[in-house]
Amino acid sequence: MTLEILNIVSVIIQIILFVALVITVVSLTKYVKLLMIKVDGLQDDLNKFKTSVEPLIDDTRVMIHKINKVSDKVDENFVYVTKTLEKLSKATDDVIDFKDRILRKAEPPIFDTLSAFAGIVKGVRVFTDTWKNKRPVRSHKFIEEDNLLFDSNGDNDFELEREYDDINKELNEVRKKLEEMKKV
After folding, report:
1. Interatomic CA distance for residues 61 and 153, integer angstroms
2. Predicted TM-score of the model (pTM)
3. Eight-class DSSP state of 152
4. Greater confidence, 65 or 126?
5. Which of 17, 86, 102, 183 is least enclosed by beta carbons within 10 angstroms?
6. pLDDT tens column, 50-59
7. In total, how many domains does the chain have?
8. How far apart are CA 159 and CA 140, in angstroms?
9. What is the phi/psi pair of residue 124, to 5°?
10. Average model confidence (pLDDT) for the chain?
11. 3-class secondary-structure state, position 13
12. pLDDT in tens, 131-161
C-alpha cells in the first residue's frame, strides 16, 4: 500500500507538474506574442524614422557638396585677388620708380635753368640799377637827340621794368611748378 500511495502521489505530482508546464508554455507564448508585437511596432517606428531621416541625410550631403564648391571658389578667388594685389603692388612700385627717375633726370636741368634765369634777372637788375644810378642827370634841353641811346620820350625805363616784371612772373611760375613736383 505504501507503494500504491507513493505511486498515486507521484502521478499527482506529475500531473501538477505537467499542468504547470503547460501553463508556463502558454504564458511564454503569450509573452513572446506580446514581444513580437512590440518588436513589430519598434520596426515600424524605426522605418518611419529612417524615412524621415533619409531626406535630411541627403540634404546634408547636398549642403556639404555646395559648401565644398563654395570653399573651392573662395580659394580660387583668393588666389586671383592675391595675384591682382601683387600686380597692383608691382605697378605702383614701377610708377614710383618712374616718377623718381623723372625727378632725378629733370631736377638738375630745371635747377640749372632757374639758376640761369636768376643770374640773367640779377644781371639785368644790376645793369638797370647801374644804368639808372650812373646816368648823368641832364636836362632834356642840353641833350642832343642824335647822341641819345634810347628815345627821349622816357618809355624805355617803363619797358625795361615791364620786361623785368615779366621775367619775375615766369620765374615765380617755374618756382611754383618745381615746388609742386617736389611734393609729388
Report:
1. 104
2. 0.36
3. T
4. 65
5. 183
6. 888 888 899 9
7. 1
8. 20
9. -65, -40
10. 82
11. helix
12. 777 655 444 444 444 444 444 455 556 666 7
